[in-house]
Design goal:
Largest sheet: none
Radius of gyration: 24 Å
Shape: globular
Helix content: over 70%
Oligomer: single chain
Order of helices and strands: HHHHHHHHHHHHHHHH
Length: 320
């Protein structure tokens, strides 16, 4: 009786995985990988989930990402006691159309399960070739969002943005590979950059290397030209204080932020930036920002958040 019940339950779960959205599918896979060591059951669920997204452009991009995330998570869990099945699960998502959406997760899982950096390197190189091809085929009808290209074009096929090249480079460095190839990856994507976020990501990448400081500054300037709201200027200000440590330039952006700030949260963010021990701290200005934040806090909860942030900054500076 129990055996029949399990078979019926498994069929039911397969049906949910086939029909449900990415989040529901992912939760089932994740829960099962925690509750059972039956690797074959988990493989079948992952196979059904991947079959659902492979080659089907109508599946929402966020659902695809969720399924990939949970499949990789499941493979890592199984890999602790069954490397063979874990590798079979990862092989399900080794097709070109999925690698372009999940190269980082796949490469990370490969290193985790097999301790095979060579295989991760091959995946990342393959991803780079796919991305280059995608960039060359980009057309004017790609939808561009506030932050980046979302990955949905007019015919609903996934494509990549400059951000994908930057993330690919970080992943390449993360599996212990050389910096020069990482720069080549970013260098290929950088001419296609669009908007504030992409320029800022490029600047944040290049500022890590002293020999690329001029390139980083160029992209910080472009990001500044594209900034159009408090959040943009605040992110730029944070980087100029912490990464560039250019006091004059950072203060110019800080002054813009201060004139745009309206809420308790806005002034709290400015206080945290100007008081950050790792940047160019100005404690008088920091106190002023937190005082402004407290004035604008409307509820006890908001006041508590401002107070907590202030205490964290003081603790950083060992001021008690």
């Amino acid at each position: 009786m129990k055996h029949r019940f399990r078979k019926a339950m498994f069929r039911y779960l397969l049906e949910i995985v086939s029909e449900g959205d990415g989040d529901a599918t992912g939760r089932i896979i994740q829960d099962l990988s925690r509750q059972t060591r039956n690797a074959n059951v988990q493989f079948q669920l992952c196979e059904t989930a991947v079959r659902k997204i492979e080659g089907k452009s109508f599946v929402a991009h966020k659902d695809v990402e969720k399924i990939i995330e949970f499949v990789c998570d499941s493979a890592k869990r199984i890999g602790v006691y069954d490397k063979g099945t874990a590798t079979r699960i990862l092989s399900l998502i080794m097709t070109d159309s999925i690698i372009k959406r999940a190269y980082a997760e796949i490469a990370e899982a490969m290193v985790f399960i097999l301790d095979d950096r060579g295989m991760s390197e091959n995946i990342l190189k393959r991803a780079f070739e796919i991305f280059k091809s995608d960039m060359q085929n980009r057309t004017k009808h790609i939808l561009i969002s506030e932050n980046a290209i979302e990955g949905i074009s007019k015919d609903e096929h996934y494509t990549c943005s400059t951000l994908e090249f930057v993330r690919l480079a970080y992943c390449w460095i993360g599996v212990g590979r050389d910096i020069e190839y990482a720069k080549e990856i970013v260098g290929y994507g950088s001419p296609y950059a669009v908007g504030f976020t992409e320029y800022l990501e490029l600047a944040e990448f290049y500022i890590n290397y002293p020999e690329e400081r001029y390139t980083a500054f160029k992209f910080f300037r472009r990001a500044e030209e594209q900034a159009n709201d408090f959040d943009d200027y605040c992110c730029l200000c944070h980087d100029l204080y912490l990464l560039v440590q250019n006091d004059v330039w950072a203060m110019q952006i800080f002054d813009k932020c201060r004139t745009m700030a309206k809420t308790a949260d806005d002034f709290t963010r400015l206080g945290e930036i100007i008081g950050n021990k790792n940047g160019l701290p100005n404690m008088d200005l920091c106190r002023e920002m937190f005082a402004m934040a407290m004035e604008r806090a409307m509820t006890d909860e908001e006041k508590s958040c401002v107070q907590d942030s202030w205490e964290n900054v003081m603790e950083e500076h060992e001021i008690y």
